[in-house]
Fold Ankyrin repeat protein.
Amino acid sequence: MNSKSDIELFDVAIEPWIPGAIQKIKKYCTEGANPNLVCMNASTTRGPVTKGLTLLTHSVHEGAFRVDLVGHQIRNKQLSMLTYLFENGMPYDVSKLSSAVRQQYIPAVELLLAQGIDPDRPDDDETMLMLAASLGNMDIVKMLVKAGADVHRYAFDNIEWTASFVANKAKHKDVAKWLKSQMSKEFFAKQKEVVASRNPKFRNLYKNATSAEDLSTDDIVNKLEQWDKRFGIKVKKSDGCSLSILFEALPENIEEFWDEVIDLCPDIDDNNKAVLHQLETKKSIGLWWD
């Protein structure tokens, strides 16, 4: 037989998007209500409740993803409720670990890693270890490494852009030093070999990891090296997603050259008249990737 708390939980959980629902769900669960009760016949403002689903499953499908129950507990540092949700089957993914790292909420990071989440986020360039390193949080950095995060992973196809590099760039010297101590001599030798093979003229592009979603730093540098041989260029400024170039000589056929520019930087096409005018009058051009 359902308790009063079970019934009250059902009334709230079938419409978890309503303001205040999270607080009530927490209250009733604390009082002993069972989130795994099977849904009864009912309807909501969004349609009928699917009979046979548990309240927890219904909440996930019909509103919890909007309310983001797990994310809410992480943001508000509600460890007991977060633990309760996991114990009762609430789904989670790698984005929640990323959120916990970003919030620097260590108990949630520990809890999520204990669920078996891969700390390396293999499908993304920037790992959670890099995120923790950029924040300078030594405890989380060590926690992620202990859980299997690869200290040798690098972003943007740039062998220098490791978590240690990110920490150093953010001026977290102690974190950078510790991460470096965990890296192998073989990796450092490979780094040195790759860096030595690069054109020193474009060193800052690698230092700033100038790249785009579908263009690595190497891709951009390869094109710049072609232009340098043909016209002579100097990179005046670069950051992670833009650079400005000064030409020693202009291309004889500006229109043909402009097609090359658009191929390298499609975003420039939205403002091509102004950029083309700058090239023709000042022998300079700014490139950017959104």
Notes: The chain has three domains: 1-67, 118-197, 200-288.
